Amino acid sequence: MDKKVIGKTGIMASRLGFGAMRLPQKDGGIDFSLASEMVDVAIDAGINYFDTGYNYHHGKSESFLGESLKKYARDQYIMTTKLSLLALDRIEHVTRAHAEAMFDEQLARLGIECFDFYFIHNISNDNRRKMMMDLDLLAMLTERKRRGQLRFTGFSFHDKAENMAKTLDMYDWDLAQIQLNYYDWEAQNAELTCKTLSERGVPFIAMEPVRGGRLVSLNQNAEHTLREANPDESNAGWALRWVANKTGADVVLSGMSSMQQLKENIDIFSPVKTFTQTEQSAINVAARLLLDAPVVGCTACEYCLPCPEGIKIPKYFDIYNEYIRFGNAHNFKTRYDQIKEDTMGIAACTACGKCVGDCPQMVNVPDEFKKMLAVYNQA
Which of these, 44, 178, 296, 324, is most buried using a 10 Å CB contact count? Predict the structure, then answer.
């Protein structure tokens, strides 16, 4: 397993990070047995960077990792988690005391005394930055570091690339976590995000390298382009290798939901193969083909949930994007009806705007729902 020292922290981390936002599911919750086995396989393969967050798996991800990792010595793994601005924003009359309580709850869930990296989660706009200042969260980080309860501070970023400097100016950050993949290099100007961080000397972790699985399923033209350049490489392999080779990211996070995905990713990073010029040219063409396809930028992070009307928004966008990529209207309508059996249909949307404000990808959900209904009614 490839490893690298993260910036100036001195921490040696595996290039592949174990993301705990998309763990395998069973009976409506985490498949504890399979997910625990995956943690064991990951550590045995040399993965030592584990990433979770307060909201992941409806608050169960941290507890799962705490239980699964307790049999290992504390120096065998790097533990990172995140303070949820989303959760704090939903508390009436929120104060710093709520954030302090969340921090303590996370230590208890994970069963540890100190976080290696602790992130402010989902800085996506000026309102989130204002909340950080109003609640004095940066002073909280400094105090918790003084107490020995966290080693290094970071933030996860979902704002526009040109706003990165605003966040960097707020604090002496040790680390950033950014959405980074070959599609968003241009689509969200991730190239500028990386450049800004590098100029400031702030190391960064790559999240969403396969864009929530979206870079695993490609349109036929993009697929053909990559297969011609390297018929033996999977679409996930293309995406992960690109981030590891071309961006400067110290760790590439992957939210793996099956043992097969884990083992494939371990192979990709043991070690990461460099890109040939032919491969680089091919992925540039594939990225352009994807950029030209008008898909909705949903990554199924579920920050938009719960919807007040009970609509499972990411499920609908998943099938809609498949329609946009492949044009199979019958399949789209069939899958829509299947989803509607378990949740409200998108016609129930009142355009309240809550989901728009919570979406890291800044998707205008009500507008996209109108387009989707038109496709459904014509199918």
Answer: 178
Is the separation of the CB atoms in 275 and 242 below 8 Å?
yes
Mean pLDDT of 113-125: 96
Structure tokens at 193: 């995000």
> Regarding predicted confidence, which is higher, 326 or 12?
12
- As a whole number of angstroms, the distance between CA 66 and CA 78 comes to 12
Burial 115-127 (b: 16+ CB within 10 A, else e): bbbbbbbbbbbee
The H-assigned helical ranges of the chain are 32-45, 56-59, 61-69, 85-89, 96-110, 126-134, 137-146, 164-168, 184-187, 190-200, 220-229, 235-246, 259-268, 277-291, 313-326, 329-340, 354-358, 365-378
Q: Name the residue among 223, 218, 234 with its Cα closest to residue 267.
A: 234
Q: The whole model's pTM is what?
A: 0.82
Ramachandran angles phi, psi of 206, nearest 5°: -95, 125
Any idea what the Cα angle at residue 327 is, between residues 315 and 21, rounded to 5°?
Answer: 25
pLDDT tens track for 187-219: 899 999 999 999 999 999 999 999 888 788 787
Cis peptide leading into residue 203 (ω within 30°): no
Q: Which domains does the chain have, with CATH numbers?
A: 3-291 (3.20.20.100), 313-378 (no CATH)
Structure tokens, 294: 């008008």
Q: Is the pLDDT of residue 342 over 90?
A: no
pLDDT in tens, 25-60: 999 999 999 999 999 999 999 999 999 999 999 999
3-state secondary structure of 201: coil
Greatest CA separation for the chain: 61
Q: Give the C-alpha separation, 118 to 66, whole Å.
A: 15
Please state, in angstroms and rounded to a whole number, the distance separating the CA atoms of residues 19 and 254.
Answer: 5
